[in-house]
Amino acid sequence: MLAGLTLFFCAIFSWAFTFAELAAELVTGIAVGLSMALLLVPSRRSGIVLMYGLALSIPFCHFAMVIVGDQGIQWQHLFGSFLIFHLIVRILFGGKLRLAPATGWILAFVAATLISTFAFIDEPAEHVTEFAKSEIQYLYGVLLFFSISNINPKSKELIWFLKAMLIMSALVALFGIYQLPARFFGWPGGVVRLNNPSLSGEFQAHTALKDLTRAASIFSEPGYFGRFLVGSLALSLPIALHRPKFFGSPFLIWLIITIQAGGLIISSSMGAWYILANLTVVMFLVERVVEKVKLLTWLGIVSIFGIAILISIELVSGFPIIMTVTERIHGIIQYFKGDMSQLIAGESLVQRIETGKIALDVWKENPVIGVGVGSYTLISYRYGEYNPFGFAANSLVNTLAETGLVGLIALLGLSFSSLRGLWKIFSRTTIVNPEENPGIRELADLAFLARPFFYLLAVEVIYFHLGGFLMRPEVWFYFGIAGLIPLLYRRKIIEIKLNENKQL
Hints:
Distance between the termini: 45 Å
Structural class: mainly alpha
Number of helices: 19
Strand content: under 5%
Oligomer: single chain
Low-confidence stretches: 64-72, 193-209, 212-217
């Protein structure tokens, strides 16, 4: 059913470029109607369904759906908002608010954004406007965190939840891969029919592959496509290493990984490849020797086949793919030699170094509480040239500039306490013969689930220094999962101990 729903969404979003308004209103109407119906019954199962909807909407989050008067709303905000309302309704009906382990840091981060209201800048009216928009987004994220961490699923339901996310990622990757031949040959489902740039001369080398592989019916740019697939690999790789029969046969999980890697390769997103390298390093530090060997073997095979695939695409299509990559590498080398003219505006990773320097200069104005949430864009122009990213493309220094040391400490505390909560579960849990006791089996499942979501959250935290947005709903979704699993684990341990005491 979930696979069918995913295919339906992919078809809708492909078709939506011709009938965008009608398709968006149709799909949105169905989602709103379903969510409103679930709100009338604020049960555990309805919360799980909404959480499923939020997770499965992540690939579609960059497609703005028209509702009325050309106003757009993102899938994640839609399902996330209903999940928040679901929590509020449950509390009103007598449900208790359970606090996840990282709650203190969450509240500290919100407090830091409130304190930054008192930061002094020259444009108070604009500051208040930007602050209001930013603070609402942070408040939304915090409520989303509480909403997810207060859902009470069983470990079996979380297992199916993880399976749904992996199936979704494979189907989205296939859809993105299909765009390559579909747009080149004009097959059905391709958003644009592209001509060979070597004949027309209208395409620049650095945009040719980007335009060719852009899965625009789901993502606004290949970078989002690539980063989504890296996050999916963070879930699937530890499963293949530790529970290869997750889908019944080891072949199926490795097939999903192969599809994810294929989509990542053709995304041609150097940022995503860089994050994959970081993921590999984290896994190499955590895993045992046997898993390290398997991981390095997989990475070597993917690298060899990836280069072969990109070269083959260039030979067949004529698009200068290798030139695209080599030009960007050349620009980075020239940057460190002191020449910034070779960088591709708005795309090179090293440009984040310059925006980071500007953010640090902004931070010096008010090092303790920052210059105010949302205020970086108002005053950063004083300290450097035009910023092609529109913000300090590094969430750590952006947070430092806007909320000062208080906000940065709270963000780091939230990140590492969340990672620590998951780490403690899967690294310290040793369970023998879980089949003999249903309670012990559920504990084993939770310990297993903590590992892939630890890697997923680690990827997101690493991405902060590459420009990850704290206002993105999926970031708070991952933090919510990081709070949910330790809560369930702790409750299950208490339940097992109570049962043992009763038997005594």
